[in-house]
Amino acid sequence: MKRKKIIYIHIIAWCVLFFSAVWLNYSNSRTPEDLHTFFKNLVIQAFYQTIPISCFYGSYFFVAPRFFAYRRYLRGIGYSILTLTGITILRYLLEYHFFIPIFNFDNYGGHPWPVKDYIENIFLYYFPKYFIYGQLYFFAENWYKDKQLKQELQKEKSNAELAFLRSQINPHFLFNTINDIYSLTYQKSEQAPEALLKLSELLRYMLREGNADMMPLRLEIKYLENVFELQRIGAKGRAYINFEVEGYVGEQQVASLLFIAFVENAFKHGILNDTENPIFVHLTANNESVSFSIRNKKNHSQKDPTGGIGLSNVKRRLGLIYPRKHQLDISDGDEFYTVNLVLQTGL
User: How many Å is the maximal CA-CA distance in the chain?
Assistant: First the structure.
């Protein structure tokens, strides 16, 4: 919370307490007051208000930090005594050197209290309330600041982790695509310029737009379409991919470069040249959710001994970006590998 806003809240709170006390005194008055008497009592009450204010902020600024922040208990006790002494002196000066000579107001009817009773009254009236209020406010404020700091640190940690995870996306597909374009160029294929242009679009998206945490769904779909087209070009038309989009695709926001990890996995471990069992990709969208599914026939003759980090990355990203707002189901069957993902977008 901004400092200026906090100051305004403090001013309003003290004003509320002040006018509450004024109204209480006015309503309890047994004799009607004229305007002059009312304003005189208003000024007197305003000066009396400086006593709880001094007690509260003396406790907040000087006593509470020694007890709770610095753990210097002897100093805390010393500042407590100084605060009590200070408000005692303040009240004495107000009542005997200001109210009586200027306003002819004697709070004790000409019979001043003994010092012991005077201090005891202040100790019993102000300390149980405003002194403790200052302690509690200091404790609550620091608890809130610590909570905000932990949230900011957690957010920074999550952002750094997401950036790291995004930096690990697409190496397998990217290297294969570069090799495919090199082969097309070496063969002087007419598809080489088109493939190079699409790769340029993919890199632009990955390095610029894809760095954002969230992106419009329509751009992610366009990105996937370019990926599929590049795969078909690299496979010389022998990559069979069935990509279907249903529902409403507008300005829904989804995590950038999220679906590509599942697509890469299908390309890497699936069979692409089977006309009867193409890689099937289906996306359904509405204002509330986005459903993504992909299925590929498993290539048992192609094993990757090094495994991969793509799917573990995407699971971690889902946990960071969509906590309790996603459902991921993976079916690793004997013949087919299927992924079903539902994101709660809540547009």
Answer: 113
Residue 58: give the domain boundaries. Answer: 3-153
Identify whether residues 129 and 192 lie together within a single domain. no
Query: Between helices 217-234 and 260-269, what is the axis angle to 10°?
Result: 20
Please report, for the domain that includes residue 241, its CATH number. Answer: 3.30.565.10
Cβ contact 280:340 at 8 Å: no
Looking only at the bridges linking them, the beta strands covering 214-216 and 326-332 are unpaired
Which of the 8 DSSP states describes residue 323? T
The reply to whether 214 and 282 lie within a common domain is yes
**Are 341 and 293 contacting, i.e. CB atoms less than 8 angstroms apart?**
yes
Torsion angle defined by CA atoms of residues 162, 167, 169 and 172, in that order, rounded to the nearest 10 degrees: -160
Assess whether 257 and 324 both reside in one domain.
yes
The rounded Cα 333 to chain-centroid distance in angstroms is 40
Q: How far apart are the C-alpha atoms of 292 and 285, rounded to whole Å?
A: 9
160 in a domain, yes or no? Answer: no
**pLDDT, mean of each 10-residue run, the chain (347 residues):** 83 89 72 70 88 92 86 86 88 87 82 77 80 90 85 67 56 71 78 81 70 83 89 80 92 86 87 91 94 92 56 82 90 93 84
Single-letter code of the amino acid located at 216 = P
Question: What digits encode the pLDDT tens for the residues 155-202?
Answer: 766 665 555 555 555 566 677 778 777 777 877 777 788 888 877 887
At 156 the pLDDT is 61
Question: Within this chain, do residues 209 and 279 fall inside the same structural domain, yes or no?
Answer: yes
Structure confidence by residue, pLDDT tens digits, 22-39: 787 767 665 656 677 778
212, 250 in Cβ contact below 8 A?
no
Alpha carbon 249 to its chain's center: 28
Residue 158 inside a domain? The answer is no
Round to whole Å and give the CA distance between 298 and 271: 6
Both 142 and 258 in a single domain? no
Q: What's this model's pTM, rounded to 2 decimal places? A: 0.54
